[in-house]
Amino acid sequence: MTDAGRSTEWAEFLDAIGRYPALAALMILLPGNHDLNIVDRANPARLDLPFSPAKRLRQMRALSAIAAVQGDRAQVFEGGTSLRPTLNESLAPHRTRIADFASRGGLRMSIKLGRIFHDQFPMILPPREPDGLAVAILNSNTESHFSFTNALGFISVEQTNRLVAAIEKFPKARWIIALHHHLQEYPMPVAFFERIGTALVNGTWFVRKLRPVAARAVVMHGHRHIDWIGTCGRLRIISAPSPVMGGTNDVARHFHIHTLVGGTDGRLCLLPPERIEIAGSEPGPATDA
After folding, report:
1. Count helices and strands in the chain by DSSP H and E runs
2. Closest to 91 measured CA to CA, from 112, 122, 136, 60
3. Residue 208 located in a structural domain
4. In what order do the strands lie in the sheet with 123-125?
5. DSSP-derived 3-state class of residue 248
6. How do beta strands 75-78 and 228-232 pair?
7. Does the pTM of the predicted model rise above 0.85?
8. What is the tally of structural domains in the chain?
9. Domain span at 34
10. Which residues have C-beta within 8 Å of that of residue 68, sequence separation ≥ 6?
């Protein structure tokens, strides 16, 4: 949602979707590496030390924005074991401290807010019917403090255990598992530097954890900026293209609308996607310098 997790960027994003409340009510947000781990886009070599409050500040900004969009729809784990309160209910005891930290900062307040961000994941949008569609919203970002590692992805054991518990709680549900990073590198020719430091560090392990639910799940992610739909074993994976990445307004772009259908055998079926073309704008008249 942002380029470097700045408060002005979050404000602009929330103002933009605020003009479309019906669309915002359908949106599901999850944090990306630019929201959390990009320290300074103007100075890529700048370090963000592990004890810097700026890292926590970016986490609290992202969490507050996510709560503003889906705080009454997403459920989180209470005590790390049972899926019960909504995200807004989970954050309610901490809102004053989060607001004070956003206003004043400081290392001590940063430490006190240490576990709040990670404890909210995975967020779960439960199915409306026992065999309906559920959504698991993951945080796949590493604890990075340097530009050369800010794109790395990682899914913690604790978060995975909570995800497995949620899946077991709805044993007939079909699942969208949404995360920012791709699980593994794709079998396609790309420059070697594009394969370094972008996929989940523990992607192979995480794929194994998803095997029991693979037939009734689809994984959706971004980050890679590649239009790709495929499988890893039985697990279907959808990579979102980037309609506005690396181009100007006069270049045509596209995205997909995906249709999911529940099979009679409990499977989740993925129909051929509908490709939506975005025409490029006509270049303006040339002017003399």
Report:
1. 10, 12
2. 60
3. yes
4. 82-86, 75-78, 123-125, 133-137, 174-178, 217-221, 235-239, 228-232
5. coil
6. unpaired
7. yes
8. 1
9. 7-278
10. 14
